[in-house]
Each structure stands twice: as C-alpha cells, then as structure tokens.
Design goal:
Helix 4 packs parallel to helix 6. A hairpin with a 5-residue loop joins strand 4 and strand 5. This protein has a five-stranded mixed β-sheet, covered by helices on one side. By secondary structure, it is α+β, with helices and mostly antiparallel strands. About 30% of the residues are buried.
C-alpha cells in the first residue's frame, strides 16, 4: 500500500505540494490556540490570515526559487512569532514550519555548502527573533526546540540528498558496467569472427590453389602420361581430404562449448612445415628451407601464426608469381623469430580483385605482438618478412612503410 501511495505522489507532485502547505498552515494556526496552561482557544482571524502568506510562498516558489523561499518564509516565521507573543501564546517551531520545509527542500536540491550557510542563517535569524518573543529571555524551551528543528531540517535534507546521489551513482556505475560488459562481449565476438575468417581464408586459399594446380597438371598429363596423371589425381584427392579436415576443424570453433562433435585435433604449427612444403612441391614449386640460430619453443598462438604466414605466402607465390622457386628462412634469436619468404617470380597479375592475403598475414602478426613487411624486391620477385616474439605480448599498432597492394 505504501508503494502505491509513493507512486501516486511521484505522478502528482503539485498535489503533494498543496497538501504540505495546508499541513504547514494548519500547524501554525493550531499553535496559536495553545496558552501556557495548554488551554485550547479559538484562533484569531488575523493570525490565521497571516499564516497563509508563508504557506503560499512555499507553494508557489519552492521549485523555482528555493533560496528566496527560504529567506521569505524565515522572515514570515519571525513575524508570526512576534504576533503570537502579542496575542498571548508562546510561539514554537510550528510558526516557522514553512521555513523548515523550505530549508529541507533547499538541502534536497543543492549542495552541502549552500545547505550549511542557509541552515546557519535561518537558525540565527529565528533565535534572534525569539528573544523578542520571550521579552529578552534566553535558552527557553521554545528557543531550543526551534533551533533543534532548524538543524534537523537541514540535516535530514542533506542526508536524503546524499543518499539519493549515492543510489544514482551506484545505478550509473551498474549501467556503465553492464554497457562495458556488452561492449567487451561484442569486441570478443568480433575478434573471434575475424580469427575464424582468417583461418577459413588460409585453409581455402591454400588447398584450392593446390587443388587447381594439381587438376591442371593432371589434365595436361592425362593424354601423354596417364600413369603420372593418375598419381596427380591421387594427390588431388589427398589435398581435398586435407582441406575438408581443416575446414571441419575451423567450423568446429563455431559450435557450442561441450558439443561432442567439436574436433579435438591440434592446430598446425612449424612442426608440420615439411608436409606443407611437400604439398607445394607436388605442384611443381621448388621451395628451399633454411634455419638460422637455435630452435626455440613457441607459444601455440605464435606457432600457428608462423605456419599460416608461410602457408599464405607460398599460396600467393603459386597463384600470382608465376615462379618455379621460393625460399623460406627461419631465423631464431633470443626474443624473436624472423620469417622471410621470397620468390623470384614475375610481377603479379592484375586480373581479379585484390584479396585479403597480406591483410590476414599482417593481422595475424599483430595479434601475437609481431609485425610484418611485404613488398617487391629490387632484384625481382616478392618478399614477405615477419618478426614474431617468442613470448607473446600485447599487439601494438604498427605502420608498415613497405605495405603494398594485397596479393
């Protein structure tokens, strides 16, 4: 039931203001009916009409001019106190009820400094006026009661405002945390989609390029050398089977966690580099591999990145360079693995739209904290060089001066 009343009050603020002003006026008038002996008497018409003024000021101005309303209602409370003393009753805090309500509302809507200044001002003003109420006497019960009510009004208003601000800050932090979680979730989803897209691109580009080369070779040998053509067709079947296996593994990343059909095969790495080189050599590409420095252990991410960069670079050679030879150089230092893939091919053909080969390689290198440079060599051919940290670090933005059109 209280909740219903509270919701109604929030929907009808002006009705609440009217009710408060009426209650303040009633208390002010009721106080004039009490004498020292607490004998009830009929309120005077003049005092009743005068008590309307601070209530009306409170009703009309407390939302737009809270500071002015505090000052005016305080003066009106002092005047009512003087009038009460003349008609024979001891004024109490109730004659300044409008000032107390105005002070509470001021504390509710301003800051601590403003509340402190106005609370002190109202307290001093009413205490000074109350001296005249009691014909110069000090520390009377009505004075102490009035001072206590003034301090209480300011303190309660400040406490309510502080509590309201605290709740608002907590809600704002909760909203910010929720929005941050949503943004982080979207970012992670975007990164995962990009990673899967790179995997699918590398797998499809590599195996389709090999399959195309093997199919073309088999068609060429079919009439003159059918036995060699048959061998090439067997290799083509192996290439497509390998492509299907890797595609199944990559698509398995999209399955829900705990799905029993999710592949459990390990990701490829430099340990599979000989098999990768052999698959290119079966298409007629001669690849030489050299290793400098002592081999060092790589993290799983760096190992996969190195493998995919070599795979994509050699795939680009097969598709675009028209080259018969390529070289792969691995150089290990204490902190870095440097991969260099070069070919002695011709200028890349311009047919077809540019792909995402170099973009994907560069993204892979950046994802493990490395960097990649690619471009044409002065002596002919194309070169891809990447530096990968042996210990994975946070990626840093890197502007490559040697970037060229994606092959």
């Amino acid at each position: 039931m209280f909740t219903d009343w509270w919701q109604w009050a929030r929907r009808h603020p002006r009705a609440v203001d009217v009710a408060v002003t009426v209650v303040v006026w009633v208390f002010a008038v009721f106080s004039s009916t009490l004498t020292d002996a607490r004998i009830v008497r009929v309120p005077t018409l003049g005092f009743s009409l005068a008590a309307v003024v601070p209530s009306a000021v409170l009703l009309l101005g407390q939302r737009r001019f809270p500071r002015t309303v505090v000052a005016v209602t305080t003066m009106c409370g002092g005047v009512l106190g003087v009038m009460g003393g003349r008609i024979g009753f001891d004024p109490g805090p109730s004659v300044a009820g409008a000032a107390l309500v105005a002070l509470y509302l001021l504390a509710l809507r301003t800051d601590l400094r403003t509340t402190t200044v106005y609370t002190a001002g109202v307290a001093v003003a009413l205490v000074i006026v109350s001296v005249g109420w009691g014909k110069g006497a000090l520390l009377r019960p009505d004075q102490i009661g009035t001072l206590s009510c003034v301090l209480l009004a300011g303190a309660v208003g400040e406490s309510v405002r502080t509590r309201r601000d605290h709740v608002a800050a907590v809600e704002a932090r909760a909203e910010l945390a929720e929005r941050t979680r949503e943004e982080e979730a979207r970012r992670r989803v975007s990164e995962e989609r990009t990673r899967i897209a790179r995997e699918l691109h590398d797998i499809v580009a590599h195996h389709i390029a090999l399959a195309h080369a093997q199919a073309a070779t088999a068609a060429y040998l079919l009439r003159s050398r059918p036995e060699q053509a048959q061998d090439m067709m067997d290799q083509l079947a192996g290439t497509t089977s390998s492509a299907l296996r890797e595609l199944k593994a990559a698509v398995g990343l999209l399955r829900r966690e705990g799905d029993p059909e999710t592949p459990l095969e390990p990701s490829p790495g430099l340990a599979q580099l000989p098999e990768l080189i052999a698959s290119f050599e079966r298409t007629g590409l001669v690849v030489s591999v050299s290793v400098e420095g002592e081999k060092r252990a790589l993290s799983s991410g760096t190992d996969l990145t190195a493998y995919r960069i070599v795979q994509e670079a050699l795939t680009n050679v097969t598709k675009h360079a028209g080259s018969a030879t390529a070289s792969v150089r691995l150089r290990y230092t204490r902190r870095l693995l440097t991969l260099t893939i070069t070919d002695d091919g011709h200028e890349p053909r311009t047919e077809g739209a540019p792909g995402y080969g170099l973009i994907g390689m560069r993204e892979r290198a950046l994802s493990v904290g490395g960097r990649l440079a690619a471009g044409h060599r002065a002596s002919g051919g194309f070169e891809v060089t990447t530096e990968l940290p042996l210990e994975t670090a946070e990626p840093e933005p890197h502007q490559d001066d040697h970037e060229r059109t994606a092959r």
